[in-house]
Amino acid sequence: MTSSSNQGQRPFGARVKAFVALTKPRIIELLLITTVPVMFLAEQGVPDLKLVLITCLGGYLSAGGANALNMWYDRDIDALMDRTSQRPLVTGMVSPAECLVFGIALAVISTLLFGFAVNWLSAWLSLGALLFYVIVYTMILKRRTSQNIVWGGIAGCLPVLIGWSSVTDSMSWAPVVLFLVMFFWTPPHYWPLSMKVKDDYARVGVPMLPVIASNKVVAKQIVIYSWVMVLVSLLLTPLGYTGWFYTVVALVAGGFWLWEAHGLQNRAKAEVTGGKLKEMRLFHWSITYVSLLFVAVAVDPFLR
User: Fold this and answer.
1) With 0-12 CB in 10 A as exposed, 13-18 as middle and 19+ as buried, what is 113?
2) Cα gap 262→153, rounded to integer Å
């Protein structure tokens, strides 16, 4: 369905759902998973509930604004890719102008909410994440380099710092370590999905690594990033921020991750293709892994 054919038939309920869809709620769930547990770690217990709710709301609005602006800029290639063909701007349920205003409004509201209701360090980190995602990743890196998701993923790492700063109004090595965990997590999380839909990216000229490199090369990179991620995740305990519970979860979950990563590499080396490559197993586990790790971050202070 084209934008012009849909302009006259846009029911209110469908429009509301479309604006919510612009914020990509499923992705934001993951951002909140990495924000709230860090607040527990920073507090070494239960943080103020009001602060948690405001931080979550601010994080949702900020990430939602970034996602809306991403869809506004990428509307040309979204229309050509199978997995994005039903996004609101492609179907015409939301116009480009409406999307642009919506995204900017969310950016402004979220920054002011953080600044006046939390603290200005969190506000600037939040705004920085939004601008990095929209300008550095979406506008500069995404269509130009296979390293797009590596460096563009920094935006998705910043909620860790925001969670810590919202409680302490400062920085420490703990959020830096978790920031690095998310930095090294992002490529091996996203590349398996890119392997699955690489034809989509190739069609629109987006040079995701699986588009320009063989499965063997991509799988090798996944294994390298995975090992660094797991090793970095274990730094919290010797630095004195976590105890036995977090360490056990990090070791077990990380060990299973490495098992899956090496399994994918072995199948790629054997030149397995199609459904037998099973690249999505690592993608799905990556979400479970980060959820388990950050739940352990939140629970660990109560067991020390």
Assistant:
1) buried
2) 23
Measuring CA to CA, which residue among 158, 224, 161 is closest to residue 191? 224
| pTM beyond 0.85, yes or no | yes
pLDDT tens across 123-155, in order? 999 999 999 999 999 999 999 999 999 999 999
Instruction: Note whether 157 and 258 are within 8 A (CB).
Output: no
Other C-beta atoms lying within 10 Å of the C-beta of residue 105: 13
Q: Give one word for 213, left, alpha or beta, with left for phi > 0 and alpha for psi -120 to 50.
A: beta
By CB atoms closer than 10 A (0-12, 13-18, 19+), residue 117 is middle
Contact of 60 with 127, CB cutoff 8 Å = no
Q: Which pLDDT score, from 0 to 100, does residue 4 have?
A: 41
- For residue 64, is it left (φ>0), alpha (ψ between -120 and 50) or beta? alpha
**How many angstroms separate the CA atoms of 28 and 123, rounded?**
17
